Amino acid sequence: MKIEILGTGCAKCQQLEELVRSLVAESGVEADISKVQDISKILSYGVLTTPGLVINGDVKVAGKIPSAEQIKGWLKI
Question: Contact at 8 Å (CB) between 70 and 61?
Answer without folding.
Answer: yes
